[in-house]
Hints:
By secondary structure, the protein is α/β, with parallel strands linked by helices. The chain has a domain at about 15-205 and about 235-245: NADP-dependent oxidoreductase domain (TIM Barrel), CATH 3.20.20. It has helices spanning about 35-45, 60-70, 90-105, 125-140, 155-165, 185-190, 210-220, 225-235, 245-250, 260-270; strands at about 10, 20, 25, 50, 75-80, 110-115, 145-150, 170-175, 195-200, 240. The strands form two sheets. Strands 3-4-5-6-7-8-9-10 form an eight-stranded parallel sheet. A two-stranded antiparallel ribbon has the order 1-2. Bound molecules: adenosine-2'-5'-diphosphate (A2P). Adenosine-2'-5'-diphosphate (A2P) binds near residues 200, 201, 225 and 241.
Amino acid sequence: xxxxxxxxxxxxxxxxxxxxxxxxxxxxxxxxxxxxxxxxxxxxxxxxxxxxxxxxxxxxxxxxxxxxxxxxxxxxxxxxxxxxxxxxxxxxxxxxxxxxxxxxxxxxxxxxxxxxxxxxxxxxxxxxxxxxxxxxxxxxxxxxxxxxxxxxxxxxxxxxxxxxxxxxxxxxxxxxxxxxxxxxxxxxxxxxxxxxxxxxxxxxxxxxxxxxxxxxxxxxxxxxxxxxxxxxxxxxxxxxxxxxxxxxxxxxxxxxxxxxxxxxxxxxxxxxxxxxxxxxxxxxxx
Length: 286
Ligand code: A2P
C-alpha cells in the first residue's frame, strides 16, 4: 500500500504521468444542471480527477463545470471513454473528437475503451479490439490523448491488447467494491504495470446497507462509504465514488485520517460475492 494523504496525492502511471488517487465518478449524473452542479461541487471540495464517458451522455455538462471553475486545464485530470457502438478504427477517431468537443478541451488526460468487444456482438471481437487500439495509439500520437487505457477488460482481453500494442495501456477501470473485488483482474494488471481504477466503489450504493460493513465502519468512526473508498485505496486501486449530493461528495473523500487494519482489510477481501452489477464483458449485449 502507498500512503495517500489528500485528494491531490497521485499514483504514478508507467508512462510518467500522474493520476490523482481518488476520482469523481459521474455515471448516472444526468446531463444538465445535475451533472454540472455535481462536478462543480466536487472541484470546490478538492477533487482533481473527473471521470466521465461518452456513454454517460453528460460530457457537455461535465466540461462546462470544469471550464467554469477557476482551475487551469492542467490542474484537472479528465478521463472519458469510447462508447461501445463507436469501436473500430475510423469511428474511434471520430468519437474521440466528438468527446473533446463536448467537453470543450484540447486534450484528454486519459481515454478508455469502455468495454471490450465480445462474441455476442461481433464475429471477430479480437480484431475489433485491436483496430480500436490502433486508433487510440493514433490519437495519442496526434497529441489529443495523454494516456491510453481500458475499462472492463479482464485477463484475456488485456492479453489481446498487449499482444501487439505499440503504446501500452496504463489503466484498467473495472467494477471493484466489497463483495466484488475481481482480484484476478487486479493481479493481471499489477503484473503488467497497469493501474487499476474502481468503478462503483460503493457497489452503486448496494453494499452500503450491508451490516458487516456497517459494523466495521462504526468501529473506525467512519461511514460505510468511507470504509469502501479507503479499502480500495489500501489496495492501491483508484476509487471513483459518485454522488450528486454535496455532503456525500465531501464525506466520500474524507478517508485520509484513518487506516483499516490488515485483518479487517482481509475480512472485507474475503466477503462472499454480493452487490455485483451483473454487467459482464463476456455477455454485454452492446
Ligand atoms: P447519490 O448520487 O444520490 O448520492 P458508486 O460510486 O459505487 O457507483 O455509488 C453511487 C451511488 O451511491 C449513487 O446512487 C449515490 O447516490 C450513492 N451514494 C454515494 N455516496 C453515498 C453516501 N456517502 N451515502 C449513501 N449513498 C451514497
